[in-house]
């Protein structure tokens, strides 16, 4: 699915949830959209004149196809946790936020070609990327386990999966994690984890929905979107794992914007906006301070 291919470009973390949004929203396919949430009445963070490609507006390159982080609502307006974070940062700078929908595989070249000022699109901070762009870390990406809200089958953490049925997508780090946990169960004298692997993340979720497995492992972001779409159906258990930092990317020669975004992020953490956005989108487990 689309989200799977997008995840594959980013890291070895598992595919997430574009398929969940397909029935509810239409995918955007290029172009830019200004969000009205900014500018602030006056800038909190000073930004030197001439820093941005277009004065009074910060343009973010983003692959707007990954709910609950970035996606289009029914009115074709970009929404999601990262959209709100980007808008909040823009407000701190006293400028408007403009979102340029950009294919993920060309997103760093687009930044370098000054088609945008920064990238906000769950871009994992990896050594090879740090050689070509600078990052302002703003959250984690991570994995989690999901169980039924009505009956968690006694599963409170990965250690409780021994002898239980667990579903995941084939080839993901969650699947690898389950395999390692199963070996640990056996080494501890307990039953192995009954691992059920599926080609699609949505199929693994369906197994939990139908009660055919006891838990479902996926990305925290996918789980957050599922829980937002189907409230009171599922719950998360245990602590997030396989965590990797995500950051806003700027050009190597753009230290002024990098420093301004760093200060802006510190401001939205201090004033509570950051925590409120993560809570709204069920992503508190991805808090960069966590």
Summarize the structure in words.
With 290 residues, the chain is α/β, with parallel strands linked by helices. It has helices spanning 2-10, 18-22, 81-93, 107-112, 127-130, 173-187, 201-209, 220-229, 255-270, 273-280, and strands at residues 32-35, 57-62, 71-72, 78-79, 96-101, 118-119, 133-148, 165-169, 194-198, 215-219, 234-251. The strands form three sheets. A five-stranded mixed beta sheet has the order 9-8-10-7-11, with helices on both faces. A four-stranded mixed beta sheet has the order 1-5-2-6. Helix 6 (173-187) links the parallel strand 8 and strand 9 (194-198). The longest helix is centred in the C-terminal third of the chain and has 16 residues, at 255-270. It starts with a helix and ends in a 10-residue tail after the last helix.
Q: Topology, please?
A:
Layout: H1 2-10, H2 18-22, E1 32-35, E2 57-62, E3 71-72, E4 78-79, H3 81-93, E5 96-101, H4 107-112, E6 118-119, H5 127-130, E7 133-148, E8 165-169, H6 173-187, E9 194-198, H7 201-209, E10 215-219, H8 220-229, E11 234-251, H9 255-270, H10 273-280
Parallel strand pairs: 2-5, 2-6, 8-9, 8-10
Antiparallel strand pairs: 1-5, 3-4, 7-10, 7-11
